[in-house]
Amino acid sequence: MVNKPSKADKKTAYDAKLCQLLDDYSQILIAAADNVGSTQLQNIRRGLRGDSVVLMGKNTMMKRSVRIHSEKTGNKTFLNLLPLLQGNVGLIFTKGDLKEVSEEVAKYKVGAPARVGLVAPIDVVVPPGNTGLDPSQTSFFQVLNIPTKINKGTVEIITPVELIKKGEKVGSSEAALLAKLGIRPFSYGLVVLSVYDNGSVFSPGVLDLTEDDLIGKFATGVTMVASLSLAVAYPTLAAAPHMFINAYKNVLSIAVATEYSYPQAEEVKEFLEDPSKFAVAAAPAAGAAAPGGAPAAAKEEEKKEEPAEESDDDMGFGLFD
Q: Which residue windows does the record flag with biased composition (Low complexity) (predicted)?
């Protein structure tokens, strides 16, 4: 006769397993497991096998193990997990890329019927078309105010109807109708709620950020720091380039307004004293216009006039002879 392990033995084994996982893995996905069946969970475990481990359990047991292990090891960062262990959740320990693991978990969703009393996670819309039901079933549609007509001996829905709104509870009539139509409107799977990474906790939405997003956010932050530094006249690395440029402008303004000068300001003063140098500098550029420009056009006009004069001389008489 094989002796079955007692509850105390199971708790001890679970505690040892959780503590070992906390030591071996620094990345954990906290996922909601509402309406996830055992077969579905096994498929998820099989899909993540290799660099990830899925651990389910009662929140009280998990919290107790995390708290005791934190005290034993002196690692207080484990305590950041405690507020996350609320509701029906599981832990996914992983050494892989967090985004890839999160996407892999999202693949294992299973369609589910609308059960009575269940809170709808999405809007449920019944599409128009032939239902395949005989006319005796029209009472379901009448109760739910769904416009129908009889077409070739079957009930046909005329227009799309929003049967259930997100957040509403599924009623008995809605559940019965969806069952008759063979519609399984909901899908369930593990949903990542939070991410634990070396003691830091953040939203899974962070995993969707690209390098361009991070660069953009960093640039925005640098701009804000520079603006604040300039406003309060407090030097920072972000504001230093602007401060140097502004200081140079101020020194240049003083040099232009006074007799004081320095090599970099002499050229500016020279141009301001003799504005004609701007026109001299621009003249070559104007002369080197594109082939379709005015100078080129003038040359072409001169070339066109020359043959006409030569032609008159060859004829031996002028225009008014």
A: 288-297
Mean pLDDT of 224-243: 87
Residue 152 resides in a domain:
yes
pLDDT value for 213: 76
Q: Do residues 23 and 144 both lie within one domain?
A: no
Rounded Cα–Cα distance for residues 11 and 57 (Å): 10
pLDDT at 28 (0 to 100): 94
Are residues 97 and 197 located together in one domain of the fold?
yes
- Report the distance separating Cα 260 and Cα 254, nearest Å: 8
* Higher local confidence (pLDDT), 57 or 265: 57
Q: Which residues contact 312 (CB under 8 A, 6 or more apart)?
A: 318, 319
Nearest by Cα to 52 from 109, 90, 82: 90
Q: What is the pLDDT of residue 316?
A: 44
Structure token pair of residue 70: 């934190």
- Enclosing domain of residue 266: 212-278
- Which strand ranges, in their side-by-side order, compose the sheet holding 191-197? 52-55, 89-94, 27-32, 191-197, 200-202
Pairing of strands 110-112, 186-188: antiparallel
